[in-house]
Amino acid sequence: MRLYHFYKIVLIACVLVLIGSGCSTLSQPSVQEEIQIQIDVDGRLESITVPSGTTAGDTLSTAGIALNGNDRSEPAAVMTLIEDGEIHVIRVEESIETEQVVIPFEVIRQPTENLPAGQEKLLQAGKNGIREIISVRVFENGEEISFSEVSSLDLEDTVNEIILVGVQSSIAPVGLPSPLVYLSNGNAWVMDQSTANRYLLVAVGDLDGRVFSLSEDGEWLLFTRTEEDEDIINSLWVVALDDPENLLIELDTLNVIHYADWVPGIEPKFAFSSVEPRLSAPGWQANNDLILKVFSENGWTQRVNTLQETNYGGVYGWWGTDFQFSPGGDFVAYASPDQIGIIPYEEAEKEVFLEIIPFKTQGDWAWMPGIGMGPLGNVIFSVNHASQEGSQADEESPVFDLVAIPLTGGGVRTLVYDVGMFAYPLPSPITAKATGEASYQVAYLQAIFPEQSATSNYRVGLMDRDGSNQRLVFPASDSPGLQPSRGWGAWSPQTTQASGNYPLAVIYEGNIWILDPETGDAWQVTGDGRVGALDW
């Protein structure tokens, strides 16, 4: 038994010796293989020995070679090297260059009937633009591998030279009882005494036609100009018709879309309503405000009164509100997509005379009825959106009627049924009858297709102020109708010597036509098709 335990102890001891011997053998470090690396750097070759498994980046560091900026190596610095090989160091350099280049202007020769045939007039002097271009050149080991333009900025805009070239016109001249101003190619022109006597009033080429209004005394033109600043839609200006140098006066008034006009009275005063520019359609958010200002010839302006603060404006108020002052300037009429009323000058509180069913346009625009103030200041002519019999969608009704809204009571009276949404009535000046009664006419637009009046062309209609004697006078029934716009026409403030009638100027197919409302005669007085607005 003792012998058994002895052998067992000896066996365990031998096993322990063997295990210890094996562990001692595993703990001894093995000799790591070294590799030879050739480094191609800066035009020379360097050789270095490093242990296998060293990264390319560590190999370069061991050799005292740094990668700066956009420098790189092949193989990349993170790659592991396990055998003899090469590392190529690629030095990357970038060169930034700034260059200014001249952008030459173009010469535009613009035909016009406003000058005699063969005569030329410099409308706008040309100016070269300057563009700054920043480019980057990339070099690898001294060799250019790429060239790219990274930015371009116009330091000075190019201004094209515009030369008006007179062309022969076969249109016979027509006598005018008072100066007629009109907008053509972004410039304001004047016809004085005769349609053949024309001169350039404002030669800037950027009038947008939103506002184009002649003062009551015929001495000042109020107009809007587009602005290059993307955060500004336009600006309001005036010019004197008798100023030999046509000095423009800026009125420090921006973003006018629907309304700006003269306020009746001795003092040079104007009123306007503004909007806030927006990137989304239609491009603005209306403030529905109404502000009055005066101005002096040296350009000084001052706020006089605020008749309407910025407000929501009711249904479709984002589109805006239209205004028109009474002949005496004691109140202002207003029209919005859902109502028509007046604002007394002293109280500045709206008084509603007609609630309108708003028209659902199915688009990014809103319909407004348009207003025309009678010359006696006691009635407003406008358009009412009426419901269609049998239809449950009143807002989509195609029925629009021309109405008279007495301001002295008596209720709204319909004068022309199914006139179309863009009738834009224009009351004439007063004519004294032999009986002593003060009379006047109302011109308006009649839709050729009233059921589709949003897209229909129109004809010019005339009637007496009470709606009697209705007739369509222009253009002829066998001619295309005219496209409606808020500034489609204007009455002369004076009668002609020949007929004793107030002539009516109309824009038709981009040209001005003069109509005699009594005889029905019409004369075309421009022929280039470029007229965008007019006033008399």
Structural class by secondary-structure content: mainly beta
Give the CATH architecture of the domain at 94-156: Single Sheet
The CATH topology label of the domain at 94-156 is Resuscitation-promoting factor rpfb fold
Strand content: over 45%
CATH superfamily of the domain at 94-156: Resuscitation-promoting factor rpfb
**Apparent shape:** elongated
> How confident overall, as mean pLDDT?
89
What is the terminal-to-terminal distance? 142 Å
Highest-level CATH class of the domain at 94-156: Mainly Beta
Number of strands: 44
> What is the spatial order of strands in the main beta sheet?
2-1-6-4
Radius of gyration: 41 Å
Specify the biggest β-sheet: 4 strands, mixed
Helical region count? 2
Low-confidence stretches: 1-7, 14-29
Q: What percent of the residues sit in helical stretches (DSSP H or I)?
A: under 10%
Give a short synopsis of this structure.
Mean pLDDT is 89; it is low at 1-7 and 14-29.
Features of this protein?
single chain; 536 residues; mainly beta; Ubiquitin-like (UB roll); Resuscitation-promoting factor rpfb fold; four-stranded mixed beta sheet; four-stranded antiparallel beta sheet; 6% helix; disordered N terminus
Give a written overview of the molecule.
By secondary structure, this protein is mainly beta. Among the domains are: about 35-90, Ubiquitin-like (UB roll), CATH 3.10.20.90; about 95-155, Resuscitation-promoting factor rpfb fold (Single Sheet), CATH 2.20.230. Helix content is about 5%, strand content about 45%. The protein contains 2 helices and 44 strands. The chain has a 4-stranded mixed β-sheet with strand order 2-1-6-4, with helices on one face. A 4-stranded antiparallel β-sheet has the order 15-14-13-44, with no helix packed on it. A hairpin with a 5-residue loop joins β26 (about 320-325) and β27 (about 330-335). It is elongated, with a radius of gyration of 41 Å.
